[in-house]
Amino acid sequence: MNRFMKSAFSFSAILLALAAVAPQADAQQYGRNRSDIVLVTPGGEILDYVPPGRGFVYAHDYSGNRVLVDRYGNIIATEMRARGYYSPRTNRDVYNDAYNNDPYYPDGNRYGDTRYSERGPVTGSIPQDAAIERRALEDQPYPGDQQGQDDYAAIEPDQQVPPADEPRPAPQEPVITLKDKSKPEIVALQVFLDRSGVSPGVIDGHMGSNVTKAIYAYEQMTGTKLDPNNTDAILEDLRMNGGLPVVSYTITDADAAGPYVAQIPEDYSQKALLPSLAYTSVTEALAERFHMDENFLKEMNPGADFTIPGTVIKVVNPGENKKGAVAKILADKGRKQVFAYDDAGNLVAAYPASIGSTDTPSPSGIVTVERVAFNPGYTYNPKINFQQGANDKILDIPPGPNGPVGTVWMALSKPTYGIHGTPDPSRIGRTQSHGCIRLTNWDATELAKMVKPGVTVEFVD
Question: Are residues 352 and 210 in contact, defined by beta-carbon separation less than 8 angstroms?
Fold first, then answer.
């Protein structure tokens, strides 16, 4: 990317371009009025939103394409025609019509295309607590019990864009591309990987870096090369092992009841006033339970009222949690991925992760897991962690999936550092953490149940 920047933009040219074209990036305008356009990052990922904030503007490259540029002159994404990245069957509006175009709801079959989803509504097809467990561990203090600096998590809100001078790691393996695959086909691939114990992160029907990393991890785990373009073989494996990738689910009374909170404030002093940092909606809760991107869950169920018990919706079927005993964890900073091994050195599971940054790097070398806490509270201490807004006092932040460390905290022997969940699963592997290892809540929970105090954690570059 640096070479491209040097050849396509000089610093003065960027300033002129920004001054000339520079309409403020607007997520709603992009989503509503430019549905035939996608934003493609330099790494080949499709950006489903325009990053918020005033530091992003549009310019043009020498090919005439509009590019989204940050305040440092870094290219965040380039506008491309959607048909170059989606097959004709996966137009961006494909999910807007539940009766004609949606591959999950084809003509004359309200239960969807049987290649990808099972017939008939299934109530509670995946147990309520299959993905996330909310319980305290006896004799294991939560971060924030004020027993020393070890109890504090060294985290801060995500950095969406790294500083201009921060090095970007080169790809470790060749980029994997799919040949004219629809969203349902990509969902099938993501579910296959998730069930195999190599997490693709949120399941959203997009081929991105997290899926690519999971494919290579699968090959490392099994010794078998996976052809991601062989959808028939993937679907057949899914049928034989856990069922098809999409199932019908009936919203229960408990789903609709919550408890939920109206919204999660950004300010930590306001967070501290809430009884819990619970989910904000049924869709957020269900999306996490089924390992999905929340917007994708809504796309799959256009017009559905998730607040009414008895409503039948389509959800991803990720299968059972991985089980086993983990003896060693490898945190690969360059790949933004965590690998879990048993005592024989076999790969048990792999997860996309956000690991450290230049300002607050993760530790180097080997540390150990000291304790594990589920559904942890969090103590904010500006003298130890970071300065959040105008808050200069210690604050006790209540537990919940939308808390700063999500649903799990695995404290490391390096003070203030840990492995934990996140309230923003769709950003895992795409943003940076502030020293800790951040996973999706469901991946962090799965890993925590396979880990005991004393497990080694090695950080590699």
Answer: yes
Contact 157, 430 (CB under 8 A): no
- pLDDT for 1 beyond 80: no
What angle in degrees, to the nearest 10, is found between the helix axes of 282-289 and 441-448? 40
Per-residue model confidence as pLDDT tens digits over 380-433: 877 776 767 788 788 888 999 999 899 999 999 988 889 999 999 988 976 544
**Which of 17, 21, 26, 20 is closest to 54 using CA atoms?**
26
How far is CA 108 from each of CA 18, 182, 244, rounded to the nearest angstrom?
A: 51, 20, 20
pTM for the model? 0.68
Please answer whether residues 339 and 332 qualify as being in contact, where contact means their C-beta atoms are separated by less than 8 angstroms: yes
C-alpha to C-alpha distance for 88 and 179, rounded to whole angstroms? 12
Active site residue 206: no
- What's the token pair of residue 313? 């919706």
Catalytic annotation, pick one of 206, 291, 434, 436: 436
C-alpha pair distances (Å), 135 with each of 138, 250, 333, 375, 444:
9, 26, 30, 6, 14
CA distance 446 to 448: 6
CA distance 32 to 36: 10
How many beta carbons lie within 10 A of that of residue 98, not counting itself? Answer: 17
Fold of 149-166+323-460: L,D-transpeptidase catalytic domain-like (2.40.440)
Domains of the chain, residue spans: 2-84, 149-166+323-460
436 is catalytic: yes
> 371's torsion region: left (phi>0), alpha (psi -120 to 50) or beta?
beta
Q: What is the pLDDT of residues 275-327, one digit of tens each?
A: 999 999 999 999 999 999 999 999 999 999 999 999 999 999 998 999 999 99
Cross-strand partners of 77 = 68
